[in-house]
Every structure is written in C-alpha cells, then in structure tokens.
C-alpha cells in the first residue's frame, strides 16, 4: 500500500516540476507584458491590477471600472 502512495507522490512531483517549467517558459515569452496597478481618479485608491503589453500600449491606460470605495463606476488610471 505505501509503495502505491509513494509512486503516486512521485508522479505528482514530476507533474508539478513539468508544470513549473512550462510556467517559467510562458513568463519568459511574456517579457513585453508587465503588471500594472490601476487607481481611481477620484479617491486615488489602488483597486485593480492588470497586465499590459508595453509594445502595443506604451502610454498609460485609463479604463472605467467600479471603485468599491466610491461605490460607483469611475475612471481608473495606470499608476507605477
């Protein structure tokens, strides 16, 4: 019985390692994408984080999003 468990654990460990290598490869491919924070223009709270492609969108993003602090839809701008 314990041999079956160890084999299952080993298979899961190998799968986990292969998933990690795939994720690392995806991260390396996405060098042009960066994680940004978006802040409400009214209350200045940072409510959202998103990814943007630096090549396609070199300027700062602005989107209408719901601010839970203002409790309404407001423009949110990208902040560093």
Q: What percentage of amino acids are in beta strands?
A: 35-45%
Radius of gyration, in angstroms, nearest whole number = 21 Å
| Separation, N- and C-terminal Cα atoms | 54 Å
Mean pLDDT: 80
Low-confidence stretches: none
* Overall number of strands: 4
Helix content: 25-40%
Order of helices and strands: HEEEE
Main β-sheet, in a few words?
4 strands, antiparallel
- Name the shape in a single word: elongated
Class by SSE composition: alpha+beta
* Individual helix count: 1
Q: How are the strands of the largest sheet arranged?
A: 2-1-4-3
Descriptive terms for the model:
alpha+beta, 38% strand, 80 residues, single chain
Describe this structure in words.
It contains one helix and four strands; from the N terminus they run H-E-E-E-E. With 80 residues, it is of the alpha+beta class. The termini are far apart. It has one helix spanning 2-29; strands at 33-40, 46-53, 62-67, 72-79. 35% of the residues lie in helices and 38% in strands. The protein is elongated, with a radius of gyration of 21 Å. A four-stranded antiparallel β-sheet has the order 2-1-4-3, with no helix packed on it.
Write the layout of secondary structure elements.
Elements: H1 2-29, E1 33-40, E2 46-53, E3 62-67, E4 72-79
